[in-house]
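TICKET #2291
ISSUE: user wants both folds in one file
ATTACHMENT 1:
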Amino acid sequence: MDQFASKTGVIVKFEDFNLPNIPLSYGAAEARIRKLTSGGETKYFYQISNEGKYGTKTASIAYEDLIEVQKALTSLIAESATDASTSSDYIENKFVTDDGFKVGYYVSDGKLTWYMQLEKFGSNNTIFIKEASSVKSALDQAKAKMDELKQ
């Protein structure tokens, strides 16, 4: 998104469409669709933002990546049931987009924990999710809103 939004010599317009917040283990993450028009070209991004101690971290997921994240999350949810009963001390399973957004889970001491890493670099950019189903629902809502806006 940064590359698309930072073109020089063209007018860049942002429009935000708020979606329901994503429940986290502690608090909630804001979600929205950002419509970005730059030089006559329009792209849509699903943004997840979480305000932390040292500022707000935001993931911007392009429409094409959102579809891949949805597919990956379905697989991760299916695999998590098996992994939750692992005999290993630690297991981690995740999906990473080209931009560095991660969604996945880890099992430690028999406890399954879901997370999202919003930004590739920096600290305090990981958020912990109450339930994977809430993320799946949020992704489905995001895709539906993008499809509606593209009409």
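ATTACHMENT 2:
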Amino acid sequence: MISLKPYLFGQKDKDADSAYRRIISLFLQGIALHAVEGEKNDYDRFRVDIDEFGKQITPDTPMSELLVAVGASLRAMEDYNRRTSKVIHRQNSDLQNMVSMLTRTVISIGASGESSVHKLQEIEKSIERTRMLEDIQLLKLRLGECLEAVREEALRQKTEGQSTLDSLKKEVENSRERVGSVTAAVELDAATGLPSKKEALKAIQAAVQSPSNKFLAIAVVSRVQAVNARFGYAIGDQVLSTFAKHFKENLGAQDQVFRWHGPAIIAVLERDDRLEKVRTEIRRFAEVKLEKTAEVGNRTILLPISASWSIFTVTPPVEELLKKMEAFTAAQVPRDYV
């Protein structure tokens, strides 16, 4: 420990001037030693400048020059502190911009849930008010927890996406087997992943010619055109896909399900039962009210899903059966539907 007592007390008057010089020199050394480090080059220059001022304090230095050196040291310290404050402020701004970019990126890629995005936005706002080191450490902890949630959500979506892909691959393979064309490629509908209308017509023609008891179920999803108009075709396709998946999952593995056109889904069924019993079977799940959560911009919407449906007995001629289907579809859908 450095003690100033020997320099302030017990010295003769002729040594007082030397003691003051010694005290000033020690203070300058302390300023250089304990200055807060900002940018390293600036910090090194500041310490060199203070050291140079300290070297000017000698037993022979006139008092006027001593005062000039002290004043210059104070100005150097003031300038250095101002520059260091700017560095700290810039670092804080850089941190805020980093979190802002992170938030926008997470929102744009859609790899996180609404909760994670909201937490990131809160952290971004908190940085604007952050001044203390303890606050930065707390925000670092919160940011780490939030990013961990984002990673878990991304992993969950990746797992679900792979599961959906595997399911679609299985459906494609089953469709090929049912139409008796393993080697031929099946034309799939992009929105639902179901075989297209072209494939449906082949299945209907085969059903009409079959001696087995066949039925045709048709379901027309309600308000798809309104969803398209308000939220875009991508959201409308999600609504169709959700209902198509529900419709298919509630039928047997031997039943053939197709995307007809517009918001219509059809299924070719083979049953030994009467029409009324088949209608009861379909009613059990076709009239269930479904819901679909979709992301639109920065908000989450909940869309109700329902459908109108009917059952037809498959009998020749094919043209007459198709007329009945088209008449039912037209009665459920406005003419301006695209």
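RESOLUTION: both attachments delivered.
EXTRA DETAIL ON ATTACHMENT 2: Residues 294 and 300 are 6 Å apart (CA to CA).
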